[in-house]
């Protein structure tokens, strides 16, 4: 038997995607050394987030005071509290406004440009922050209606700051330290939370010293002095100051080169703006901009099959992880006071006067922010470009899950007086790993992985999903955390599942967040155009393969 070997080769040309040469103006941004303009952009964008966090979290410091002032009942054994519907509305209405603002301003940022819309959001925030401390009348119904009305529009302005700040910073940054710059903008949120606690401490201490009042148990009526009505107003209105201080500088920022070149298609303006910022000569490259923008690869819309194929799973990943994170994160933040009261870190309300209670709640929140929240944000800034977004997010969700279960399963153990410090330490660690984890990365990644013409919109959608989770957390935890014993619930609330079971639910939510993290790509070290596919071109590459047959 002889073997005749016949080798047959088939040659064909296959079209494959090859990277196109980067625009000079974008390459200059990607490779730029860290300069003063980077830090200027961080401060200008970051002060918006400072205000965002201050305004969103300051309300949790004054809700107990509002209950004492406007819902006092003669002869009651406990101080007045906001009814469930009012409490949830006051707490969550800004989140509803934020969700709407994220969707609207995110879309508008891609249509009109980042810079034009950026000033609008800040103006809305300043005006509504001031107005939220005012009221339409003296009756509680009008006060609460006015507060809810202005906090909704305050949230609307805050919502616009999310996609615009993230997009502007990502489009200004170099690719080596882009993650750290975007995370640094978001980290200003930690200082905003800290500042809300410090302002509340200072204001409440000053008023308590000037207008000394007995505890509720001693004299229910006198425990809430008339001047207490100024305390919550000052605390809420203070948030307008840092935002107003940065308005001028926001208006002076040039439009980002990526929007100007890739969306507005104005190569000359993009080159001129960035040459002034970077202080280098940059060629306009109008022909190259025209080629890129006319490429059909770079023209698909948000609701197209092409977007679904290229970015559908990415958008699912960014929306789902942000949604799940914010259920847990906002539940913890907005209702810290209830958790601290449940374990006895804040004394029973009847043993304090109204202003003294604000001081105690603010002190607890400030300590948590100082020891865990703020450090967590800046750990992310330090390590995000070293170990990557994916690893930080996965690690954060993992430890949040572990610590939630560590608090929930032996919950009775932590309520004992001798073990309260241990509870506070573990509770603080959940905040640390939320911020050195998904709370930062869910903000960073959507600003990196989508095309320039849809970047602000997709970030807005992702952020809005997060705020939907925050609303679920704010409303859900408010009711769920009530005791299962009807005799131990707050006035007007139905029995819930208790703090212990609520913490177990939050642990499960964090676990789901860890699983959905696997849908999110790793953008570390890549240019925005490389991540979004905007810089690809079709090229003919001759590829050779052999198909061997061996007949007998």
Description:
It catalyses: phosphate(in) + H(+)(in) = phosphate(out) + H(+)(out). Residues 531-542 have a biased composition (Acidic residues). Belongs to the major facilitator superfamily. Phosphate:H(+) symporter (TC 2.A.1.9) family. Pfam families: Sugar_tr (PF00083). This is Major facilitator superfamily (MFS) profile domain-containing protein. Mean pLDDT is 84; it is low at 1-17 and 539-552. The protein has a two-stranded antiparallel ribbon with strand order 1-2. Helix 6 (178-210) packs across helix 19. With 552 residues, it is mainly alpha-helical. It is 68% helix and 5% strand. It has 22 helices and 2 strands. It starts with 5 loop residues before the first strand and ends with a strand. The protein has helices at residues 24-31, 36-70, 84-112, 114-131, 140-172, 178-210, 228-237, 240-245, 247-252, 257-263, 267-278, 286-294, 305-334, 336-342, 354-387, 389-408, 411-415, 420-435, 438-444, 452-480, 498-516, 528-532, and strands spanning 6-19, 536-549. The protein is globular, with a radius of gyration of 27 Å.
């Amino acid at each position: 038997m002889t073997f005749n070997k016949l080798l047959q080769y088939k040659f064909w040309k296959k079209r494959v995607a090859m990277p196109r040469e980067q625009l000079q103006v974008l390459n200059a941004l990607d490779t730029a050394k860290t300069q003063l303009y980077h830090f200027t952009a961080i401060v200008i964008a970051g002060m918006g987030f400072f205000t965002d966090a201050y305004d969103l979290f300051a309300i949790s410091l004054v809700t107990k005071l509002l209950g004492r002032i406007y819902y006092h009942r003669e002869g009651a054994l406990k101080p007045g509290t906001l009814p469930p519907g009012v409490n949830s509305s006051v707490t969550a209405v800004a989140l509803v406004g934020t969700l709407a603002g994220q969707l609207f301003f995110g879309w508008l940022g891609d249509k009109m440009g980042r810079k034009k819309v950026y000033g609008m959001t800040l103006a809305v925030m300043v005006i509504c922050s001031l107005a939220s401390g005012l009221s339409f009348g003296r009756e509680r119904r009008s006060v609460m209606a006015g507060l809810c009305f202005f906090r909704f529009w305050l949230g609307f302005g805050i919502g616009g700051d999310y996609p615009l700040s993230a997009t502007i910073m990502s489009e200004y940054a170099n690719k080596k330290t882009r993650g750290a710059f975007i995370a640094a903008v978001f980290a200003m949120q930690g200082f905003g939370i800290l500042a809300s606690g410090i302002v509340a401490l200072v204001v409440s201490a000053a008023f308590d010293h000037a207008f000394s009042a007995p505890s509720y148990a001693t004299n229910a009526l006198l425990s809430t002095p008339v001047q207490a009505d100024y305390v919550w107003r000052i605390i809420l209105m203070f948030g307008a100051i840092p935002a107003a201080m940065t308005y001028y500088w926001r208006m002076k920022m040039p439009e980002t080169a990526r929007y100007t070149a890739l969306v507005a298609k104005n190569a000359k303006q993009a080159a001129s703006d960035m040459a002034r910022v970077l202080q280098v000569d940059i060629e306009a490259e109008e022909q190259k901009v025209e080629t890129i923008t006319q490429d059909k690869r770079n023209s698909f819309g948000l609701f197209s099959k092409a977007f679904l194929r290229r970015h559908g799973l990415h958008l699912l990943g960014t929306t789902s992880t942000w949604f799940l994170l914010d259920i847990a994160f906002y539940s913890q933040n907005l209702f810290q006071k209830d958790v601290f009261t449940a374990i006895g870190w804040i004394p029973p309300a009847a043993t304090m006067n109204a202003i003294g209670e604000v001081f105690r709640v603010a002190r607890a929140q400030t300590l948590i922010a100082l020891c865990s929240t703020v450090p967590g944000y800046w750990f992310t800034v330090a390590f995000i470009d070293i170990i990557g977004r994916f690893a930080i997010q996965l690690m954060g969700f993992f430890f949040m899950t572990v610590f939630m279960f560590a608090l929930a399963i032996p919950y009775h153990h932590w309520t004992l007086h001798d073990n309260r410090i241990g509870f506070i330490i573990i509770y603080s660690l959940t905040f640390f790993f939320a911020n050195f984890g998904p709370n930062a990365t869910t903000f960073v990644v959507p600003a990196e992985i989508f095309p320039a013409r849809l970047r602000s919109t997709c970030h807005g959608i992702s952020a809005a999903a997060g705020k939907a989770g925050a609303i679920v957390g704010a409303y859900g935890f408010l009711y769920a955390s009530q005791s299962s014993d009807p005799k131990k619930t707050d006035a007007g609330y139905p029995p819930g599942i208790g703090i212990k079971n609520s913490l177990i639910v939050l642990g499960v939510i964090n676990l789901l967040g860890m699983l959905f993290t696997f849908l999110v790509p790793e953008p570390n070290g890549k240019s925005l155009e490389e991540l979004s596919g905007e810089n690809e071109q079709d090229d003919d590459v001759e590829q050779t393969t052999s198909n061997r047959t061996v007949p007998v």
